Amino acid sequence: MYDVLIIGAGIIGASIARELSKYNLKIALLEKTKDVSNGASKANSGIVHGKYAAKHGTLKAKMCSEGREYFPKLEKELNFGYRKTGALVLGFEKEDLEPIKELRNNGIKNGSDPDSLKILKGEEIQKIEPKINPETKYALYDPEVGVCSPYELTIALAENAIKNGVELFLENDVQNIKKDGDFFIVETDKDSFQSKIVVNCAGVNSDKIAKMVNADNFKIQPRKGQYIIFEKNSGKKVKNVVFQLPTKKGKGVLVTSTYHGNLMIGPDSQEIFSREDKGTDIESLKYIVDTAKKSVPDILDNKMIRSFSGLRATPDTGDFIIEESNVENFINVGGIESPGLTSSPAIAKKVKDLIKNKIKLTKNKNFDPQRKPIIIKKNLSNDEVKKRLFIDSSPEKIICRCEQVTEGEIVDALNRNIFISTLDGVKRRTRAGMGYCQGNFCGPRVKELIARENNIPKDKITKSDGSAGDFERFKKFHELK
Ligand SMILES: Cc1cc2nc3c(=O)[nH]c(=O)nc-3n(C[C@H](O)[C@H](O)[C@H](O)COP(=O)(O)OP(=O)(O)OC[C@H]3O[C@@H](n4cnc5c(N)ncnc54)[C@H](O)[C@@H]3O)c2cc1C
């Protein structure tokens, strides 16, 4: 019997699990895929948004403004990758000044410092961001915005939650939930679990999960956002996150550097009908390139290495749903679209407060907030990389030459407390396969290490979607040039 059972190990489920692990509770975290962070939490812009980003008066605005403040402390504890960059929201026409002023007012209402949230004009913008379109007339400048590595944050939260007593069950697809007196029976395709409280954090499936207990007073419409990511070091092109004015569909196409220094452009926004559709298409990628060029004209000087997409869980209520449902002890955390990543620490605290009203919470005196980094920053010369590629198995041996990932880092990732059975599991933890060749060189070597360390036959090791690899992508990019 668990005190709390959390469904879905994205950033929201993992944040809640870690927050609750500060108390003496028996907690289960259930995830249908082979790893944590396989949903929207792995495929988003990675922006720690400013307070201007969500409409004043909404739960989104409250959670975003509160949540963003925890990031510096979380980075110190969990070492996932976060830094402040600043952001610009560009306006190209005279008429754009009014909406930019409105955004600023919204930020101030949500708690931004009026002295730092500024409206810049003409050359002032170029001084901050030299590669910006010289025709930009106005920009809202928020120095508080940052970028983070969203999947590393999710992994770090889950690892730390497990260290503090949470039990993670991967490859458990929740298929039915029954209420039996004072507790729930949660049935997956593998097993059955009993819990006093259930927290539904199933992302695009959160309405389906809620329906299992008739607690579905909301519907989710998935909205796909596609991205293009560029080669290593291309992120130097921009210092700030560069947005255009938001539209009805969202924050629009941005130009940013990822935490690890890759230039990234996207996302677009398309309503889709399958909750599994993660493909990218040439028309959307063309739209993204053309729109991004309006902000930073020479974007295509850099080489593209990959396209990907993420699904927003857009609720018909228009706001985050974070509440105990009409079914006692069944808590819905649904409709967590953007800025859900930024809001995640505050959402976790809100859920803890809901649970505090149900179960007496006593502090876990053994709670340890620290989680060590996996990636060790290095800047090896080409000669050193070549030398270390061909040495015998050792922690210093280079496995991924593009990202200079060592056998030691991969072995560390494989021997932590989450069982890794996919190439993507290693990729997201160590960056092996994130470089220009996208794993064509290191893929077989990583497979060997997964097989050796985790005792899995090599032919059973795939990417997280079950595929062997994606060699078609370069063809796609030739069409964009
Ligand atoms: C294109 C895009 C850009 C974004 N950009 C930003 C940004 O820059 N900044 C920001 O703050 N936010 C951003 N967001 C929002 C942010 O990514 C999300 O709010 C956040 O990732 C949602 O996390 P989650 O845990 O609710 O969902 P998910 O990460 O999708 O996790 C849900 C989990 O539930 C699991 N699950 C589903 N069904 C079941 C089942 N039946 N049984 C067991 N498990 C199940 C899934 O496999 C998944 O792992 C963006 C989102 C998108 C899509």
UniProtKB/TrEMBL annotation:
Residues in FAD dependent oxidoreductase domain copies: 3-353
Limits of the BFD-like [2Fe-2S]-binding domain: 398-451
CDD domains in the cross-refs: GlpA-like_Fer2_BFD-like
InterPro entries: BFD-like_2Fe2S-bd_dom, BFD-like_2Fe2S-bd_dom_sf, FAD-dep_OxRdtase, FAD/NAD-bd_sf, G3P_Oxidase/Oxidoreductase
Protein name per Swiss-Prot or TrEMBL: Glycerol-3-phosphate dehydrogenase
Organism: Geotoga petraea
